[in-house]
Amino acid sequence: xxxxxxxxxxxxxxxxxxxxxxxxxxxxxxxxxxxxxxxxxxxxxxxxxxxxxxxxxxxxxxxxxxxxxxxxxxxxxxxxxxxxxxxxxxxxxxxxxxxxxxxxxxxxxxxxxxxxxxxxxxxxxxxxxxxxxxxxxxxxxxxxxxxxxxxxxxxxxxxxxxxxxxxxxxxxxxxxxxxxxxxxxxxxxxxxxxxxxxxxxxxxxxxxxxxxxxxxxxxxxxxxxxxxxxxxxxxxxxxxxxxxxxxxxxxxxxxxxxxxxxxxxxxxxxxxxxxxxxxxxxxxxxxxxxxxxxxxxxxxxxxxxxxxxxxxxxxxxxxxxxxxxxxxxxxxxxxxxxxxxxxxxxxxxxxxxxxxxxxxxxxxxxxxxxxxxxxxxxxxxxxxxxxxxxxxxxxxxxxxxxxxxxxxxxxxxxxxxxxxxxxxxxxxxxxxxxxxxxxxxxxxxxxxxxxxxxxxxx
Length: 458
Known about the structure:
The protein has helices at residues 296-308, 323-332, 347-350, 355-370, 390-406, 445-455, and strands at residues 12-15, 18-25, 37-41, 57-66, 70-76, 79-80, 82-87, 90-96, 102-109, 112-121, 141-142, 146-151, 154-166, 169-180, 186-194, 197-206, 210-220, 234-242, 248-256, 261-264, 267-270, 274-275, 280-282, 313-315, 335-339, 376-380, 412-416, 430-433. The chain is an alpha+beta fold.
């Protein structure tokens, strides 16, 4: 299952779930000729009895049939932790980080059978600043769905939809990224619809091998606002039309909820008025029988248990979560603090030569892929890292500024355990403490909360 709603009617897509051939390997090259195992995708290889504690390299192989010659796009929703993707034996892309999706476009694919190989590495190695031993287990495998899409040479890369409320009227700021991988300039029209409103976003010339962005603000009448008690959702459909012949060549559907989040008068407000009291849980993607590859039924069970206990919120500690989980939070009215993949890092770890680059990539992919989810009410970074140092403060500042530049519609936060030594609270919209009375300490919870209120203003 890819998403809880269909994202395309024109673009042909195929989920590559099922059994893939599998082989542990000692080095990336050469790729194995023999595969002695079969493992389900998505899954974690630790669920197989022979690989309960395996940490290393492994290759997954899948034969795929292409019905029509042309361009394909492979999307991987999550590979833990580093992936190298081969198509017909040729390396096409690499990706670092288990918890964000990535794509690769492959042109000029002939009709017929082809081979996809993914080399997966879950080792703790020197060139990884974020994937390190933790107090939670990091699994190996293709842990989230894989999708094969047949795309035209000019196609919709992504859509961003930001709801805006002005003087009790609702608008939707729509941005569409259009990519042209052909050798020729192409002119396309962009058409859209949301609720009962249809709109044209204009025509645009897209130069060869380039990407353009179209933006438009759409007024929407009679909006039912998204709230936890009434999580109303709307589909935004974007269609790409060839200007020369009016052929519809691509489409994409996103889903939005009309809501705003503000932080005024020391409170979080929803839709400009209602104060939000967050009651919830930190949630890891981990389960004794499936590891980090959580099936739909168990995601639903998690959310039903949270709701049964009176919770209304989830923090995705300490990495971006599966889009199926976020889709369900949208539908069920949960509030989400989504967090990047970096936790408990000392200043020495934060000074790793690849730390800035790898964090920037994770932040970018987290926001770009999940920005349309109304359930996400805040972005978080760098859980319990060196925010008590001047050098650490510079890195917190960089990452918060990066995310704020991508999305001004949500507040920013991070969880601190530095108490009165904290140096970064002035950089965020929401001050957040991790406190452990009765767990790591014998402190009185009420007295500790009173102290925390003083720390944030000290």
